[in-house]
Amino acid sequence: MSVTAPLGFRAAGIAAGIKASGGRDLALVVNDGPSRAAAGVFTANRVKAAPVLWSQQVLSGGRLKAVVLNSGGANACTGPEGFQDTHATAEKVAEVLQDSAGEVAVCSTGLIGERLPMEALLAGVDQAAGQLSKNGGLAAADAIRTTDTVSKISFKRGEGGYMVGGMAKGAGMLAPALATMLCVITTDADLTSEELDAVLRRATSLTFDRLDADGCMSTNDTVLLLASGAAGVRPDLEEFGRKVTEVCADLARQLLVDAEGASKAIAIEVIGAACEQDAVNVGRTVSRSNLLKCAIHGEDPNWGRVLAAVGTTDAVFEAERLNVAINGIWVCRGGGVGDDRSKVDMRPRDVTITIDLSAGPHTATIHTTDLTAAYVHENSAYSS
Amino acid sequence: MSVTAPLGFRAAGIAAGIKASGGRDLALVVNDGPSRAAAGVFTANRVKAAPVLWSQQVLSGGRLKAVVLNSGGANACTGPEGFQDTHATAEKVAEVLQDSAGEVAVCSTGLIGERLPMEALLAGVDQAAGQLSKNGGLAAADAIRTTDTVSKISFKRGEGGYMVGGMAKGAGMLAPALATMLCVITTDADLTSEELDAVLRRATSLTFDRLDADGCMSTNDTVLLLASGAAGVRPDLEEFGRKVTEVCADLARQLLVDAEGASKAIAIEVIGAACEQDAVNVGRTVSRSNLLKCAIHGEDPNWGRVLAAVGTTDAVFEAERLNVAINGIWVCRGGGVGDDRSKVDMRPRDVTITIDLSAGPHTATIHTTDLTAAYVHENSAYSS
């Protein structure tokens, strides 16, 4: 299912020989219309990979015929030659589809600072084009994996019978905005590119942007939303927004659970904030405390490390009015010792840390993982 | 030597029974004058431990008779009762010295969120007072250790014959401002508290504030500078500033080398910055990239992770003009692939990453460590 769950889409995932492992490493997603409306959200990193620079330019037109994605190389920090490689990839896709390169988005993921093996990649585009099918969604999702241990796919049915489908990859460098990831979402509903853009920005701000596995922001993050209009349904915009958000949230959850070396999925729930931005900032800052992430890994409800992190933010709060609960036990009340910390059950994989700033009605939840020796191993044993 | 290297100071370090290990855990440093001028710099964390709140108040008077320090408990997030404990500790020191509690600073370090065992601590003050001596500097430096594997001490002789001595502790939560640490610096030169304050702020901004082991800011950081005037020397202020900075740099280096679980000492040297603040911000941001710290641990000169971190800052730079050298090899030039990365020798413990922003003449160096499985173990295996 994945990106081919909605009508009007074909996809393929093949092994082009880009990855040393020999596994699938090139995916192609094609929108057969009748509509080609599309929108994209990209990394906020100022060092952007060539495919991000290219796809941003393409998306300014609000239309996409196809998306070509490769794992095995990020094509980031590769200079004008790297941009030329991306351009050539889009031209090749346009050629095999007899369409315009100006409506072909390109996504790459893998090691930064190395050129892509273009001969293999361009031959792979031919091969992928030959295998495009309405059942190709799973193979495409498989082909964009890097250190992901599983493919990430999702789909939901909307009111009136339209579908939203999606695939994503990402297992490290998960940080806003966005998480380090590639994501393609498709729908057979009929919407304008402006509508898609508004819906996608809101959906990603509530989901992928609130995922922070290791605080590291990628050069390649891309989330695309393509609408074929093939179901002939003009959905209610709010209802459509909810469906896209559900798909994004589902994929974000899958990314979190598969994050490199993680043994815990931690929800940092900030309540009582003076504004939503305060809640997000506090959650983000706490989610980046290596000391706290180690403590959670050790199943230690060390709320002092939560307060130490909250204290580094400029959110509205008074230290003596902070309350912290871990898995429902209010271990810190009024900035000091609260209920007995030995009552906290730290054994489940899911850990919820609730931080009450006692400063207002606003809330936000940031999702992160623990810091483990396995994370260190995965990110020090080889280049990625 | 340590804090008792200059004339006019006595110190002691004893086992009061605060630490479960039974090791030394209480230090007392006394200034016998004739001067009592003093200055202090404290954590920027908004969640401040009781002893920080107390000592900031004391230092507003610009005079210190004594400093009492304990390991085995941070007395942070302990509410009004914790502040009362700090107050009682200062009163006890004043009593044994027949002096004023208003000129006694208190420092604590250890686990956040637990009350101190006051009976043991107050008895310890009596014991320490009985052991005060001009040779007590080493015992005092030993008593403030937590996860530090060695004591940190330093001393330098100034022009005209005065001395500057110091001791410090800190092995985790090393982040500005300041690194998670306690530090007491003494001198027998004769200076006003205003002069000491200016010198200390400048010295810490160039040393401890540029140390960032794990990005976590403590609730207890304190650096104190006490002048007895016993050498009868009024030093040149600039020369005195250099000496204090040298002592701070020496202690900072010792903290870095002893940082929890570290196997590499990494200097992030930022050059070509439009202003000093840009250089500091870029260095700090790069020093906090878990992915980069893992790569350095794995002896992988992964400059892509450097650029990915630089790109998240708001410093003045253009991505295509960034250059990066690792241990002297310019592996990234003009934002792209530079010299052969296989030429980089990653085996030495010291690793220097030079980032040229190509945007101006300013520079700054931030010191950090690699991220290791040992760090994870040390911070997850027990509460600290």
UniProtKB/TrEMBL annotation, chains A, B:
Keyword GTP-binding belongs to the record: no
GO cellular component, one term: cytoplasm
Keyword NADP among record annotations: no
TM region positions: none
Residues marked Cleavage (site): A179, T180
EC number: 2.3.1.35, 2.3.1.1
Binding site for substrate: T146, K169, T180, E260, N379, S384
Classification via Gene3D superfamilies: ArgJ beta chain, C-terminal domain (3.10.20.340), L-amino peptidase D-ALA esterase/amidase (3.60.70.12)
Cited InterPro entries: Arg_biosynth_ArgJ (IPR002813), ArgJ-like_dom_sf (IPR016117), ArgJ_beta_C (IPR042195)
Top-level lineage group: Bacteria
Places the protein is found: Cytoplasm
Site (Involved in the stabilization of negative charge on the oxyanion by the formation of the oxyanion hole): T109, G110
Pfam family, one: ArgJ
Keywords: Acyltransferase, Amino-acid biosynthesis, Arginine biosynthesis, Autocatalytic cleavage, Cytoplasm, Multifunctional enzyme, Transferase
Functional description taken from the UniProt entry: Catalyzes two activities which are involved in the cyclic version of arginine biosynthesis: the synthesis of N-acetylglutamate from glutamate and acetyl-CoA as the acetyl donor, and of ornithine by transacetylation between N(2)-acetylornithine and glutamate.
Stated family: Belongs to the ArgJ family.
HAMAP family: ArgJ
Name by which UniProt lists this protein: Arginine biosynthesis bifunctional protein ArgJ
Species, as recorded: Nonomuraea soli
